[in-house]
Q: What sequence folds into this?
């Protein structure tokens, strides 16, 4: 069973940067696509960015393209989300998720993911 732990959230001002980390406990997730989702109060969970099992292929939501970068460190078994030029509308709980099946590409559909972390809060003030 893969358990994911996110870290790196916080309170920042608009225009600032944050780096989130997602690390599994219990086993490696190097064979699995991993994505970040976020959920703002009163909103549905939405896809943010995803990376393939080897890190060669990444996709992004239009709202974060050119501002956020997803990457994975295969050796240390960590997936990062670098968030630059943060906006108040980026305020949400950010979750990382790993695909149900190995060797896949990232997908925007949250039902494709079988393993989720508890989330880390990101608040961007104006």
A:
């Amino acid at each position: 069973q893969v358990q994911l732990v996110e870290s790196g959230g916080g309170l920042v001002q608009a225009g600032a940067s944050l780096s989130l980390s997602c690390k599994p406990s219990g086993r490696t997730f190097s064979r699995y696509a991993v994505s970040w989702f976020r959920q703002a109060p009163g909103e549905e969970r939405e896809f943010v960015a995803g990376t393939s099992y080897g890190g060669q292929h990444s996709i992004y939501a239009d709202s974060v393209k050119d501002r956020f970068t997803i990457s994975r460190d295969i050796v240390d078994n960590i997936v990062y989300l670098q968030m630059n030029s943060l906006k108040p509308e980026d305020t949400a709980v950010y979750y990382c998720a790993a695909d149900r099946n190995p060797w896949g590409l990232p997908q925007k559909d949250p039902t494709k993911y079988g393993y989720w972390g508890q989330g880390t809060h990101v608040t961007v003030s104006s």
Q: What stands out?
A: The mean pLDDT is 94.
